[in-house]
């Protein structure tokens, strides 16, 4: 296990290096970043100065070294528009994103577990069909549209909740609910099908024969084993959480990292987009590492 | 008589023979409703100029924010107009072009790359397989939307950028599925025999293995239509998709966001179009899977 962990950490470092190289090449392949700032009145001398200031007059290997060593120090560069360090801007936005995502994750995954188990144990009843319908709808309707319809119903028609922004707890209701609804269907389908498999297994039959109460059989013996399959998809679910958060933060004008990202895209503020992408990449790789470890822990049959 | 008993799957599968069986398909609701929606989509995209009542880009200040015909508007604009007076229905019809062309291009690219890598990894095994699967795992766990943004900033938003952004990660599910299928096939008798008579690995992969993975490939391609349309519309919604003034469903929903308290129809109908097409793609994929390969429950 210890040796495997070291191998995985090395793999992770290699992946990160590959990703930084990819981003570096992308920036250079798309043309000179200074060209984006050129106006009709800018002289060649000005351009040359800016290039020198940004280190763009150095050779490519040198530029890459500067870029990667900056990353290693946690330096993501400065925003072209706000002229502030990208790390500071992310630091300001991150708490908003984290609070929204964590609440939606707990609600969405919690609901997926409960509904998935209930649907599997009451197969082909109205409850099962209703849950399946909910999952199908949730996977087909675009998240941003569901959010806008929800705003129309609850904020415009009934005037119950604020339409956007942060403030009191009421501001959390719609973003959290829509993000949870965006996240739930994938997990729900996984839990239901995995639970159906487990319920047909020998050890569940044995637990029933032993005379254990049905509740213990389902929520302890069966569910614990049924969770192994969804755990392998945790990486994809996390990716879904990030995607959903980026989209919904923009619908609800939520001042998080996703909103920062989209504002930066429309302003072509490259360092910000690059910084956020790299930060998310690191988190994604870390999560996958944790999932691998958790996987071996939950299912002792798996040894790396 | 013995033959029918020995091959019971024949009895289960076909309820009739010849033309009767062929027409059965059209009596299945979970086939014909989604199929009808997709045919409608293709017709709308192909004949957009003939079908749509107005030019999707034509603005008209006097016709701004007209409600749909059934909500107090005029029959001239069935689904109403947006804040520039452009006809919503016409824009939805033209938006079908973007959704459809992006989906087709992305499926072509991702299916080709993913299938090739999946067959290579699954058949060759060893280091190639380990490396490919590692890359696949990372691609599956990477939020596609970030890559879309990155490309939109560097290459500038365009149809090419959108296709590229979705394709860069979109091959991974194909590689994962096809590899699994190839692993089951690689030690099958017909593959071993081909190897014994001296077929080259390339020939085995192309002419012996590939024909046997066409079904899962077809199912996954159909199921991915919905996902691609959702991704494309999300990128458009966030301003990283096909740039304005081209009508796309995602950007139309986005246009109506700020006017939700006065003109709900600008956002509502394009979103409904996305939902219906995605739903149809998913249903058709499920139907195809149940018919061709019910083992593939997990995709």
Structural summary, described in words:
The complex is a heterodimer of chains A (304) and B (299). With 304 residues, chain A is an all-alpha fold. Chain A has 13 helices and no strands. In chain A, 34% of the residues are buried. The model of chain A has no long low-confidence stretch (mean pLDDT 84). Chain B has one domain: MetI-like fold (Orthogonal Bundle), CATH 1.10.3720.10. Mean pLDDT of chain B is 83; it is low at 1-18. Chain B has helices spanning 2-6, 8-13, 18-24, 29-46, 48-51, 88-124, 126-141, 144-155, 159-170, 172-185, 189-196, 201-209, 214-237, 249-257, 265-292. The interface between A and B is large, with 52 and 46 residues.
Task: Quickly list its features.
heterodimer, A: 304 residues, mainly alpha, 76% helix, B: 299 residues, MetI-like fold
Please outline the helices and strands.
The complex is a heterodimer of chains A (304) and B (299).
Chain A: H1 2-29, H2 44-53, H3 60-72, H4 86-121, H5 126-140, H6 143-157, H7 170-199, H8 202-209, H9 214-226, H10 228-232, H11 234-251, H12 257-266, H13 270-298
Helix pairs in contact in A: 1-13, 4-5, 4-7, 4-11, 5-7, 6-7, 6-11, 7-9, 7-11, 8-9, 11-12, 11-13, 12-13
Chain B: H1 2-6, H2 8-13, H3 18-24, H4 29-46, H5 48-51, H6 88-124, H7 126-141, H8 144-155, H9 159-170, H10 172-185, H11 189-196, H12 201-209, H13 214-237, H14 249-257, H15 265-292
Helix pairs in contact in B: 4-6, 4-15, 6-7, 6-9, 6-10, 6-13, 7-10, 8-9, 11-12, 13-14, 13-15, 14-15
């Amino acid at each position: 296990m210890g040796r495997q962990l070291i191998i995985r950490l090395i793999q992770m470092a290699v992946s990160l290096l590959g990703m930084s190289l990819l981003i570096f090449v992308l920036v250079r392949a798309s043309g000179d970043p200074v060209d984006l700032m050129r106006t009709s009145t800018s002289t060649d001398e000005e351009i040359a100065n800016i290039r020198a200031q940004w280190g763009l007059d150095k050779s490519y290997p040198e530029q890459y070294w500067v870029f990667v060593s900056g990353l290693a120090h946690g330096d993501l560069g400065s925003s072209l528009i706000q002229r502030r360090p990208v790390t500071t801007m992310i630091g300001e936005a991150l708490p908003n994103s984290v609070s929204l995502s964590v609440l939606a994750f707990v609600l969405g995954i919690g609901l997926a577990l409960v509904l998935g188990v209930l649907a599997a144990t009451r197969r082909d009843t109205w409850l099962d069909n209703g849950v399946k319908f909910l999952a199908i709808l949730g996977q087909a309707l675009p998240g941003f549209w569901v959010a806008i319809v929800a705003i129309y119903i609850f904020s415009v028609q009934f005037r119950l909740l604020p339409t956007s922004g942060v403030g009191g707890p009421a501001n959390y209701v719609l973003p959290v609910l829509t993000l949870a609804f965006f996240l739930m269907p994938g997990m729900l389908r996984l839990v239901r099908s995995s639970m159906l498999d487990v319920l047909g297994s020998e050890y569940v039959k044995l637990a029933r024969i032993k005379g254990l109460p049905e509740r213990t059989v389902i929520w302890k013996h069966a569910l614990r084993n049924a969770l192994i399959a969804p755990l392998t998809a945790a990486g994809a679910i996390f990716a879904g959480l990030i995607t959903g958060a980026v989209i919904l933060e923009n619908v609800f004008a939520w001042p998080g990292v996703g909103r920062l990202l989209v504002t930066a895209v429309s302003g072509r503020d490259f360092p910000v987009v690059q910084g956020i992408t790299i930060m998310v990449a690191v988190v994604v790789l870390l999560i996958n590492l944790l999932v691998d470890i958790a996987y071996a822990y939950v299912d002792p049959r798996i040894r790396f | 008589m013995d033959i029918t008993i020995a091959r019971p799957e024949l009895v289960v599968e076909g309820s009739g023979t010849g033309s009767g069986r062929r027409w059965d398909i059209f009596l299945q609701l979970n086939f014909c409703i989604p199929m009808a929606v997709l045919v409608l989509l293709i017709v709308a995209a192909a004949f957009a100029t003939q079908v749509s009542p107005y030019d999707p880009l034509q603005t008209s200040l006097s016709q701004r924010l007209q409600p749909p015909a059934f909500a107090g508007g005029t029959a001239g604009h069935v689904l109403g107009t947006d804040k520039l007076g452009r006809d919503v229905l016409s824009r939805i019809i033209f938006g079908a072009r973007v959704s459809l062309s992006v989906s087709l291009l992305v499926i072509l690219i991702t299916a080709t790359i993913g299938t090739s890598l999946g067959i290579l990894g699954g058949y060759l095994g060893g280091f190639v397989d380990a490396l490919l699967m590692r890359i696949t795992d990372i691609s599956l766990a990477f939020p596609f939307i970030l890559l879309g943004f990155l490309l939109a900033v560097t290459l500038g938003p365009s149809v090419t950028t959108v296709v590229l952004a979705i394709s860069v990660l979109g091959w991974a599910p194909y590689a994962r599925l096809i590899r699994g299928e190839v692993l089951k096939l690689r030690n099958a008798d017909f593959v071993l025999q081909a190897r014994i008579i001296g077929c080259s690995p390339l020939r085995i992969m192309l002419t012996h293995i590939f024909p046997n993975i066409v079904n899962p490939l077809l199912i996954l391609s159909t199921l991915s239509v919905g996902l691609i349309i959702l991704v494309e519309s999300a990128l458009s919604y966030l301003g990283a998709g096909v740039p304005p003034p081209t009508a796309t469903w995602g950007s139309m929903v986005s246009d109506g966001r700020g006017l939700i308290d006065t003109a709900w129809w600008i956002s509502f109908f394009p979103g409904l179009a996305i939902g219906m097409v995605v739903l149809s793609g998913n249903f058709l994929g499920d139907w195809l899977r149940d018919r061709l390969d019910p083992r593939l429950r997990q995709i």
